[in-house]
Amino acid sequence: MESLNPFIDTRLLVIKIGSALLVDPDTGQLRSDWLSALSSDISAIRKSGVKTVLVSSGAIALGRTRLGLIGKKLTLPEKQACAAAGQSLLTQAYETALNTYDINTAQILLTLNDTENRRRWLNARATIGALLELGVIPIINENDTVATDEIRYGDNDRLAARAAQMLGADTLILLSDIDGLYTSDPRNNSQARHLNLIEHIDNDILEMGGTANAKTGMGTGGMATKLAAAQIATQAGCYMCIMDGRENAPITRLVNGERCSWFKASHNPKDARRQWIGGHLNAKGLLTIDSGAEKALENGKSLLAAGVVGADGSFEKGDTVQIMSQSGREIARGLISYNAEETRKILGKSTVQIAEILGYDYGAALIHRDNLVMSL
Fold first, then answer.
1. Per-residue pLDDT for 167 more than 60?
2. What are the φ/ψ torsions at residue 138 (nearest 5 degrees)?
3. Helices (H) and strands (E) in the chain — how many of each?
4. Per-residue pLDDT tens for 174-201?
5. Which residue, among 97, 102, 252, 92, has the nearest Cα to 173 in the 3D structure?
């Protein structure tokens, strides 16, 4: 089995920290000793020349304690109130712990739109890049105070992967409450086998993650969201690791060979624009295509209206849409050249008919090949 070290050829490292690691699930109090040990790890990383970004949950968990809501099932407004009350505590905790090592921090709050909108994606990348150049460690979290269910990540695994992709990170480490990926849930199956290295994420691997709604502890991410993160990160040329981070000094333990699961980066990462398209989490619509169009896309062609048999969703020109086979398999994602109403009028039609039907055209392709990224 191939051995991997996260710091060989790593210039930029992203570390994702879950709520249950940072905040004691029983008391709702910050795990100060754990954070202190992590800060020591981060200091050592920086001395080796590796820039570091943290993606941290914990605001809602700390806010629960502050507002006296431990153990209560929260409504969305209550979650947002807890996030507002806890975010300052979270920021202060990191500031205090890392200042011990003369490390400055900066808070970055993102919503789904900040990574799904191209201009905001570029702005966020520039800001975080500037902080890194100044020797500051960015602490990224989802802006739960304003995000609604329709415009939120809902988990920091995929947020961390999008951040790693955005910044061109070499390695992403997901600190979790499990030591990696198993062939099935080890809590329910004693025969489940641990996987040390995943070289390619296929449907068999994805099925090992269970459903996207799987939840553990205080966090909102399960293995399914971690595998979704792995797809985003590895396609961007970033190695990803899932490890059990509950004990102190997780990065030191990882370097010393603690068991984990590594996901191997693609040898041919897509360019930044294609990464952004392919990593979109909030596609606005769905196109179903016939087998002829499917073969055309596999051969590097653009998607023409003639090969589309169905269009669902409400989308505008330039939005990201999913492209599905008639069997329901996602084939690709792309930026569409026509809005939903126009698309429904021209689907199944030849290129020469588009102008006749609409009275104008935005080009022959419904989705040009330069704006299209094939799925795994």
1. yes
2. -75, 135
3. 14, 17
4. 999 999 999 988 888 889 999 999 999 9
5. 252
Return the structure tokens found at 317: 């020109």
155, two tokens:
């988990």
Which of these, 228, 256, 61, lies nearest to 160 by C-alpha position? 228
- C-beta pairs of 23-30 under 8 Å, 24+ apart in sequence: 23/58, 23/61, 23/62, 23/65, 23/218, 25/217, 25/218, 27/65, 28/61, 28/62, 28/64, 28/65, 28/70, 29/65, 30/62, 30/89, 30/93
Q: Which of 60, 58, 53 lies closest to 21, judged by CA?
A: 58
Separation of first and last alpha carbons in the chain: 24
**C-alpha–C-alpha distance, residues 374 and 376, integer Å:** 7
In a 3-state reduction of DSSP, which class is residue 320?
A: strand
Please give the single-letter amino acid code of residue 15.
I
Higher-pLDDT residue of 316 and 290 is 290
Q: Are 93 and 177 in contact (CB under 8 A)?
A: no
At 283, the amino acid letter reads A
SS3 state at 51:
strand
Dihedral sign of CA atoms 282, 202, 154, 58 in order = negative
Closest CA to 250 of 13, 64, 25, 9: 13
Whole-model pTM: value is: 0.74
Angle at 157 between CA 153 and CA 159, to 5 degrees: 50
Place of tokens 């407004």: 77
> Which domains does the chain possess?
12-275 (3.40.1160.10), 283-374 (2.30.130.10)
Residue range 16-65, pLDDT digits in tens: 999 999 999 888 899 999 999 999 999 999 988 899 999 999 999 999 99
Give pLDDT tens digits for 236-288. 889 999 999 999 999 999 989 899 999 998 866 666 667 767 776 678 899 99
